[in-house]
Every structure is written in C-alpha cells, then in structure tokens.
C-alpha cells in the first residue's frame, strides 16, 4: 500500500512539471523566436517481486514504481515570419539537409525535425541561429532577430548581447541605422554601391541542436561545442535571411492547450489515488487496530 502512495506521488510530480512546461509555452505564445518545449516522461526501472515463505522464495512478477519527467526537449520547427518593416529586424528561414551515410540520399525528417535511420541512429535536422556573445565572451545562439544599434554603432540583440559577424567579432556599424542593408545570405551591403561590403552576419549552423541548452531570454548555449558540431554558414546551405521580418513563436496553441488539460486531469487522478490510500490507512489504524 505504501508503495502505491509513492507511485501516485511520483505521478503527481511528473504531471506538475508537464503542466509547468505547457504553461511556459502558452506564456511565450507571442515571444519572437521562441521554440516550443515538450516534456518527456519515462518510467522508473521495473523491480522483481518475490514471495518468501519458510525459507523458500517464489517469483511473483515485475512491478513498476512510477514515472518521472526526465527532460524537456525543444522543438526547432520554423515559426511564421511576421513583417515588421524595421531595418534592424531579421528572421531566418532554413531547410538544411543531411545525407544518409549509407545511401547518400537526403534524410527525411518528421514534423519534429527528427529521423531514425535503418541502423537505429536518431538524427536531428540541423538548425541555423544568429550568433551573439555575452559579457564573458561566451557564444550564444538565438532565433530572435530583433536587434538594436547603440550610440557607438554596436549591434545588440533583444537580450542586450553583442551580435557577431561571420568572423566571430562583434558587429560594429559606422553607417546610420537607416542605411543598414543585408542581402538574403546575410551579407551587409555598402549603402553607396549596394554591393556586399565584405561583412556578414554571424549565422551559425548547429548540426546537432539536441545538444543545445536553453538559457532564457531566447538564447541557447552549448556545453560541448564539438558534440553540438557548430559552424558558420556557407554558400551551400539552404538558408535565407529576411530583413524587416521577425520569426514568431512556433508554439501550437491547440496542442499545448490539450497537453495542459491532460496534465491537469492526470494530476487530479493521481491525487484521488493518494486520497484513497490515505483513507485506507486511516481505517487500518483506527478500525482494524481495535479488532
């Protein structure tokens, strides 16, 4: 009976975290560049139950001891592009491909950007991000292209981070803000000639986006750069920069609302199980004990 209490309590904790994740998604429904988070739950390892009687042991079977919210996974699906008309607003649209190492064909990804090869290997679609830098010199990655330019010509992200160029240096402009022009590949254009000036936006391709860690403020970082396999974009990447646009959140409000209600109902069901066990224990103590 006590084991059932622990199992139901674990279920309540898991559903609370699932509920919190759905609430976070709803709160960021209109946050620029926000990527939906999905909570993944797993069962605790099964344990073998045996019955012991007069020195002999007989196997009864396996029993599960509950579930736990193991991790939260970001979904890097493309969000809708919204026109803002501001010259310092940028959005990315990408369709980066990965070739199967055996067949050489382009891998087909599902709606979540994941694919499982014939060998059972899980592969995620590479994603492109604007590269920014914090005050400690750490590179961060974001899809929020709502930039600003300070009095010194320094280009800053929405979180106040320094926007980098393709050489990994902070992007510093000398021209007025109205003259800022960028082509589809992220090349800054000379305001006088309209030709590439030799400076490009620092857009990074993360070949293994599942290695990224969410920091808040719409940015991610990689604990292991080699594991995340990060590089700057090249001419072969199917990537487009849209000036005067912002990428909206990719949260699916219908799906998140259903998940929110399902988590609430499951939490309520586990709560009733605990109430049942509590009532049974109370009877065992107050009534059975008198007999």
UniProtKB/TrEMBL annotation:
GO cellular component: a single term: bacterial-type flagellum
Keyword Metal-binding on entry: no
InterPro entries, per the entry: Flag_bb_rod_N, Flg_bb/hook_C_dom, FlgE/F/G-like, LlgE_F_G-like_D1
Sorted UniProt keywords: Cell projection, Cilium, Flagellum
Domain Flagellar hook protein FlgE/F/G-like D1 per the UniProt entry, residue ranges: 128-170
Family as reported in the entry's similarity comment: Belongs to the flagella basal body rod proteins family.
PANTHER family xrefs: FLAGELLAR BASAL-BODY ROD PROTEIN FLGG, FLAGELLAR PROTEIN
Protein name listed in UniProt: Flagellar hook-basal body complex protein FlhO
Species: Paenibacillus albidus
Encoding gene per record: flhO
């Amino acid at each position: 009976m006590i084991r059932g209490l622990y199992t139901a309590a674990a279920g309540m904790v898991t559903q609370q975290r699932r509920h919190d994740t759905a609430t976070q998604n709803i709160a960021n429904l209109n946050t620029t560049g926000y990527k939906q988070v999905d909570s993944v739950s797993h069962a605790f390892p099964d344990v073998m139950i045996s019955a012991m009687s007069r020195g002999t042991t007989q196997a009864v079977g396996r029993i599960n001891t509950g579930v736990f919210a193991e991790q939260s996974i970001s979904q890097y699906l493309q969000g809708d592009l919204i026109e803002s008309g501001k010259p310092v607003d940028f959005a990315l649209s990408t369709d980066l491909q990965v070739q199967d190492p055996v067949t050489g064909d382009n891998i087909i990804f599902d709606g979540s950007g994941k694919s499982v090869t014939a060998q059972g290997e899980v592969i995620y679609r590479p994603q492109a991000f604007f590269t920014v830098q914090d005050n400690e010199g750490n590179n961060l990655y974001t899809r929020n292209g709502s930039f600003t330019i300070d009095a010194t010509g320094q280009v800053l992200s929405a979180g106040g981070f320094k926007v980098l160029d393709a050489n990994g240096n902070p992007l510093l402009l000398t021209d007025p803000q109205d003259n800022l022009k960028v082509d589809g590949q992220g090349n800054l254009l000379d305001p006088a000639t309209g030709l590439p000036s030799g400076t490009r936006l620092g857009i990074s391709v993360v070949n293994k986006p599942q290695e990224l860690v969410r920091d808040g403020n719409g940015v991610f970082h990689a604990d292991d750069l080699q594991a995340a396999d990060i590089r700057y974009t090249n001419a072969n990447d199917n990537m487009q920069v849209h000036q005067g646009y912002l990428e909206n959140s990719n949260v699916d409000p219908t799906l998140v609302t259903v998940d929110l209600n399902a988590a609430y109902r499951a939490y309520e069901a586990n709560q009733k199980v605990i109430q049942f066990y509590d009532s049974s224990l109370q009877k065992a103590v107050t009534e059975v004990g008198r007999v």
